[in-house]
Write a structure and sequence with these properties.
The protein is of the alpha/beta class. It folds into two domains: 211 residues, Alpha-Beta Complex (Spore Coat Polysaccharide Biosynthesis Protein SpsA, Chain A); 70 residues. It is 49% helix and 16% strand. The protein has an eight-stranded mixed beta sheet with strand order 7-5-6-4-1-2-3-8, sandwiched between helices. The relative contact order is 0.16.
Length: 317
């Protein structure tokens, strides 16, 4: 039986102080388990010595393919670059800070190779040491996303193994504004959920700010559901019913001879309707912005440099 190669796709951003240690730790586990591997490391426009560290890795270890993007395009674009560059029979997507435990990779490979699963996805049995804000935000996001899109991503992560045919199916989706976690769930295929506990970071801190998380939330919702647009229709119907009731009340009071100016009512109605209109315009504007970004057809990423280790056997004899 021919050996199957695993491509490990790892986006890297300002991880220069520990990326070498992380890759060596992962590589040790792969070699110990006789897994033929390829590392695809994507420097997403880092501002520290990350690219120098990746170049050093290409001289120290076999099976390293390092890409440097021309600027910071974001993790989603870096994942796209990595999956496009990977040529293994399956791809393992994981983070560079070892919060995704590399000890689970051999089990992922076994489930894929021996049990026939097309996707082995890591699901979080615990979220690790996250702040209260992030935990509440994640809960709100996943509940909202499930109700609007029908895809349940609760406890989901980017840590997953995907068979080559799943990667090719994922690559058929041409949108520029991507949400990897949702897209990889949308393609379906035979899946297995493997629980893991989020480990402590080996170094550094989260690169996700509240603003970036908010943008990801909006991008994910609008990419997988048009239901927010239906809110506008709902508001229109609600205000139409309200206007009929108010008209009936006004006519009754007029013909009953007890009509009054109603200045406060008019002001409140103007404020409510004005707010609803602004909300509606904002929702429509968000979807128009997505259309605008897509029709420009700009590439998801640009690569400025690439380094590859000399070809060597990356598995045990």
């Amino acid at each position: 039986m021919l050996s199957k190669r695993i491509s490990l796709v790892i986006p890297v951003y300002n991880e220069g102080q520990h990326i070498g240690e992380s890759i060596h730790a992962i590589q040790t586990i792969l070699v110990q388990n006789g897994i033929d591997y390829q590392f695809v490391l994507i420097d997403d426009g880092s501002r520290d010595n990350t690219w120098a560290a990746l170049q050093q890795l290409t001289t120290e270890l076999p099976g390293i393919k390092a890409l440097k993007l021309s600027r910071n395009f974001g993790k989603e674009a870096a994942l796209c670059a990595g999956l496009d560059a990977a040529d293994g029979d399956a791809c393992v997507v994981m983070d560079a800070d070892l919060q995704h435990p590399p000890e689970l990779i051999p089990e992922m490979v076994r489930l894929w190779r021996d049990e026939g699963y097309d996707v082995v996805e890591g699901i979080k049995s615990s979220r690790g040491k996250e702040g209260l804000f992030y935990k509440l935000g994640a809960r709100v996001f996943y509940r909202t996303f499930r109700r609007l899109s029908g895809l349940d991503l609760r406890k989901a992560s980017d840590f997953k193994l995907m068979d080559r045919k799943v990667v090719e199916a994922w690559q058929q989706m041409p949108e520029r504004d991507t949400f990897f976690r949702g897209m990889s769930a949308w393609v379906g295929f035979n899946r297995y959920q493997l629980p893991f506990a989020v480990e402590q970071r080996v170094a550094g801190s989260s690169k996700w700010s509240p603003i970036k998380l908010g943008k990801l939330f909006i991008s994910a919702i609008t990419a997988f559901s048009s239901l927010p647009l239906q809110i506008i229709t709902f508001l229109g119907g609600l205000f139409f019913i309200g206007s009929l009731l108010l008209a009936a009340q006004t006519l009754y009071m007029k013909y009953s001879g007890i009509a009054y100016t109603g200045f406060t009512t008019v002001i409140l109605l103007q404020l409510i309707i004005g707010s609803a209109l602004m909300l509606s315009l904002g929702i429509i504007g968000t979807y128009l912005a997505r259309i605008y970004d897509e029709v420009k057809s700009r590439p998801r990423y640009l690569i400025s440099c690439e380094r590859t280790s000399p070809e060597q056997n990356t598995s045990l004899p």
